[in-house]
Amino acid sequence: MNKYAIEHKNIPQYIYPVARNELVFKIKAARGDISKCSLIYWARNNLQKKESTMICAHRDDLFDYYETNVKFSKIARYIKYYFELVDLNGQKSYVTAFGIKDKIPEDGFFEYLYANENDIVTVPEWAKGKVFYSIFPERYNNGTPSNDPLGVVLWDEKPTRENFFGGDLLGIIQKLDYIRELGVDCIYLTPIFKGDFNHKYATTDYFQVDPIFGSNEDLKELVSQCHKRNIKIILDGVFNHCGTNFKPFRDLLEKQEESKYRDWFYIKKFPVEISHHNYECVGAYKWMPKLRTSNPEVRQYVLEVMDYWIREAGIDGWRLDVADEVDIKLWQYARAELKAKYPEIILIGETWGSALKMLSGDQMDSAMNYVFRDCVKDFFAKSSISAHEFDSRINRMLAEYPDEINKVMYNLLDSHDTARFLTECGNDKRKFKLAAAFQMLFCGCPAIYYGDEIGMAGENDPDCRGGMVWEENKQDKELLGWYKKMIALRKSLPPLMFGGYVSNFCDESKGIYGFVRDFNGEKVYALFNNSGDMHKIDLPVLDNADVYEDCLSHEAYFANHIDRISAKKFYNGDLLEYSGTVSLTLDRYSFKAIKSKMEE
Q1: Do 99 and 217 sit in the same domain of this protein?
Q2: Catalytic residue among 350, 403, 424, 453
Q3: CB 3.0-4.6 Å disulfide test: which of 163, 200, 252, 292 passes with 195?
């Protein structure tokens, strides 16, 4: 047993409540090193020990991640515990707060003290497994040319960082039926408040919709029309920084050291001029001064803005720009205050790497999952990593966050800050469709960037921010139909919306990868051929069913039952109790999703 690889700490990453009477325990060990892992636990005032067998929920190239949920008859408090690990030779070891022991420990136990209400990891129920749709408002649809800024270019002109196309809120309202028919559950708008530049990430008035998008009343109407169609809507909150025309910053420029807002910013030296040498900003971009979010006055201001739009417009939450650069106290404060008043709003933080520091239950509900995006890009679009590395990276990502949060992670293929995914695929639509299928069958919340569904391409910003193509003869109707089919498939099967995730097939030489989604005993098996060759494979299955069917074509497949020894030869066969195999033929760059007939 590799004892150096074993890790558990009494911190939220490894133990946390999902209810006041239910705790999740986690521990990790070297990959394939443990034959059994058990949690031994008891109450401080009750010496009767209980055992809970832990399952290997995720596995990457180095580690196995074991976990178990334990429910208590009362509030979880003063719970002592340690772990019993059995290696492949039957040798037992015991993991305690004092280290790893060879004998049953008599002291040095871990202890969980108290499940307080605000310790519970909760997410909005409505958001679990839902489909998001990201819109760059200036480029989606021009509903009111009368509010266009001067110098608007033709709609199909090449986007630059300076030009304007004339998209607005009324234009989005006009296309809501299109969005509903696509199958979208929630819209995310990039910034709409008064600000500099066409992207509006340099906010100048947080309480006013930018006139080029319409009015505050137009926003309220948009929210109302979304809700009539059972579509949620969230706005982009840019609170890490502002624009240089933000009134507090203009006051600072005018009054310098005498400004009452001097502590709202990170001033390097006086006199302050518009220069990154004078104040901290986003990168070295002088037009976006960084707000001092550790300042209680700034925190209160941000909270007032967030509360105002939830209260006045009825929005369903916030996507929070560069959330990992903002003072942690702001998000903790905002979550506590806003969730007390609006428990079902969603808070999604932007980060381009691990979001662990924001996803412990005290800040964000979700994050923009660029880790997911990078995995899918490297495997499906670029073919730069093997199926095994893809599996490892996906499982490492899932193991990092609580399962409740994995159910609402914002899983994107691209965004207004990246090249479009079709372009990443070298305009190979087969690869793009396969990646989109994986996104729709994966756990969490698939997020579509406007126009991907009709075949829009584009390099990185600003090329990815082109005008939405509305001329039907210029849209890829076959791709649009594919997106509708994938979303409908997702919504028709509870395991794809809410189920767990376990890898069950990985063939590096053939470029084939597969997983199982399981919800309340109902299973869906997904298998992807990310290669230019046709392959016939035997897919291991967990049900004791004789007949399986294709979830799309309804073609029937007959299972071949296998014994326990044979089952262990398949991928992750040491973790999963395979009962049989199903023979499948996969065309090049294609996928199949199957389920047992008895689950109908």
Answers
A1: no
A2: 350
A3: 200
